[in-house]
Amino acid sequence: MEVYLVQHGESKSETEDATRPLTDRGREEVDAVARYVATLGIEVAQVFHSSKLRAKQTAELFAQHLVVPKGIAEREGLGPLDDPVKAEHLVAQAKGPLMIVGHLPHLSRLASLLVLGEVEKEVVRFRMGAVVCLARSGESWSIDWTLIPAFAQQRGQPGGREKGE
Question: Does the first or last residue of the chain, that is N or C, have fewer Cβ atoms within 10 Å of its Cβ?
Fold first, then answer.
């Protein structure tokens, strides 16, 4: 099984807008990543996101490009400072590939918990709008791949290399 951890895209500062929606750049980067992920044929049963607007908007952009049979849904326990054990329970209950859209430091702590069994050691460095794929083999989780916006945007540009080249 796979779990796709996605850090929300770039958002406005709290002084610009207290709800912190995605910036135009954030939308563009997330859209490029979501389009690229769709070309890989990735299947996601459901997308969970935190209660923050920037995470919801990021989840919606992914859902526009991926087939998500069970849709997207807000879940408690996915906020920036939430205990990653709550998210670990969501992962354990998942019946298929799951995408979680959230924030730092939560996503970093969740990845560490799944891969190492502890939250304090960083196993992967997240970037806004990026995807980290964790794969489970038996009871063990490992980092399978990561995709950052710069790569997805480059691949989507005219003259950029496409999959298989």
Answer: C
Side chain identity, residue 2: E
Q: How many CB atoms lie within 10 A of CB 66?
A: 20
Phi-psi category of residue 148: left, alpha or beta, with phi > 0 → left and psi -120 to 50 → alpha = beta
Residue 156 has a pLDDT of: 64
Model confidence pLDDT, tens digit, residues 33-65: 999 999 999 989 999 999 999 999 999 999 999
3-state secondary structure 45-106: CEEEECCCHHHHHHHHHHHHHCCCCCCEEECCCCCCCCCHHHHHHHHHHCCCCEEEEECCCH
In the block, tokens 């891969």 appear at 115
Task: Determine if residue 138 is left, alpha or beta; phi over 0 gives left, psi from -120 to 50 gives alpha, anything else beta.
Answer: left
Query: How much of the chain exceeds pLDDT 70, in percent?
Result: 94
Q: What is the DSSP letter of 4?
A: E
CA–CA separation, 13 and 63 (whole Å): 25
